[in-house]
Design goal:
26% of the residues lie in helices and 21% in strands. The protein is built from 2 helices and 3 strands.
Length: 77
C-alpha cells in the first residue's frame, strides 16, 4: 500500500429544488446528490465526489471548471 496522497480539488456545482429535496450536481464530474436542505445537499455531494475520486481511473474524468454562469432560458420545442 503506497503513501496517502491528498489532492485538494475545487468543485463547481449547481443546486436546485426538486419537490421536497435539494439536488446538488457537480460540474467537474458526473456526480450528484441530494438533501433536505441546501447545506445537506452540498455536504452529501462533497462526500459523493470524494468517494468517486477514490477510484484512480475516475480521476482522469475530473476536469477543472473555470468561472461558471448558471442561467435559465425558454425555448420553443
Amino acid at each position: 500500500m503506497g503513501p496517502w496522497r491528498f489532492i485538494m480539488r475545487s468543485l463547481k456545482y449547481v443546486v436546485y429544488c426538486d419537490g421536497k429535496y435539494f439536488v446538488s450536481q457537480c460540474l467537474n464530474v458526473d456526480v450528484s446528490s441530494f438533501g433536505k436542505s441546501i447545506d445537506e445537499a452540498v455536504s452529501n455531494l462533497k462526500d459523493a465526489v470524494e468517494l468517486y475520486l477514490k477510484d484512480d481511473s475516475a480521476n482522469l474524468l475530473f476536469h477543472e471548471v473555470g468561472d461558471a454562469l448558471i442561467g435559465e432560458a425558454v425555448v420553443n420545442a
